[in-house]
Structure formats: structure tokens, C-alpha cells
Amino acid sequence: QVQLVESGGGLVQAGGSLRLSCAASGRVLSTYTMEWHRQAPGKEREVVTEIHWAGRRVYAESVEGRFTVSRDNAKNTLYLQMNSLKPEDTAIYYCTVTLSGTPYWGQGTQVTVSS
């Protein structure tokens, strides 16, 4: 059983920055790939980025060069640094990890970017 809790969302003007955190408990996640997803109003949930246990990072084209994913294994925490935010980045952001075929999700954190 894993619990994921996201934080750090908020309201920011276009061009601004936010740093999201995802604190995990119940299981050490250092050997698992973790992901950030987001869901905008009226749209399907999409993958934003993933970070493999060995550190390899993959980004959606829409956030490449603006967002940076990282993890602190000592704190069992995943981060998402978001720079140069755009109104189209407005969404609920979720962290997720899949263990033995079972996906675990946090409750999400709202990011709103005003123009």
C-alpha cells in the first residue's frame, strides 16, 4: 500500500514558476519509475513527465525545456519544477507510481496560470 500526497499548487501569472511535491509513504519508491500527470478541465488526463529509478527523464513535448522532474530518495519525495508557465498548463497535477501492476495516485494539486 502506498500513499501519495501532492502539494505546491496555486495561482500564478503566465511566465511564473511553481514547484510541486509528491510525498510518498507506506513504501520506499527509489527503485520505481514515477510520473506526473495532469488533467485540464474538459480534457483527458495526460502524462507530463516520468523519471526512471536510474534517473532517466522523459517529458511531454508541451513541457520540454520548461519543466524539470526530480526525486529525493532519502525523503521518498518526487518534485516537479515548473518554469515559464503558460495558461494552457492550468490543470490538476497528479503523481503516480505503479507497483506490481497496480497504479497508485495522489489526490492532485491544482495549478492555475492566469494570462
Stretches with pLDDT under 50, minimum 5 residues: none
Helix-and-strand structural type: mainly beta
The outline comes out as globular
Give the SSE order as H and E letters.
EEEEEEEEEEE
Straight-line N-to-C gap: 40 Å
Radius of gyration: 13 Å
Helical content, roughly? under 10%
Q: Biggest sheet: strands, sense, closure?
A: 7 strands, mixed
Mean pLDDT across all amino acids = 96
Please, what is the oligomeric state? single chain
Structure summary, number of beta strands:
11
How big a fraction of the residues is strand? over 45%
Polypeptide structure, described:
With 115 residues, the chain is mainly beta. It contains no helices and eleven strands. The strands form two sheets. Strands 2, 4, 5, 6, 9, 10 and 11 form a seven-stranded mixed beta sheet that branches. The termini are far apart.
Essential attributes:
mainly beta, seven-stranded mixed sheet, 115 residues
What's this entry about, in short?
This protein is mainly beta.
Write the layout of secondary structure elements.
Blueprint: E1 3-7, E2 10-13, E3 18-25, E4 34-39, E5 46-51, E6 57-59, E7 67-72, E8 77-82, E9 91-99, E10 102-105, E11 109-114
Parallel strand pairs: 2-11
Antiparallel strand pairs: 1-3, 3-8, 4-5, 4-9, 5-6, 7-8, 9-10, 9-11
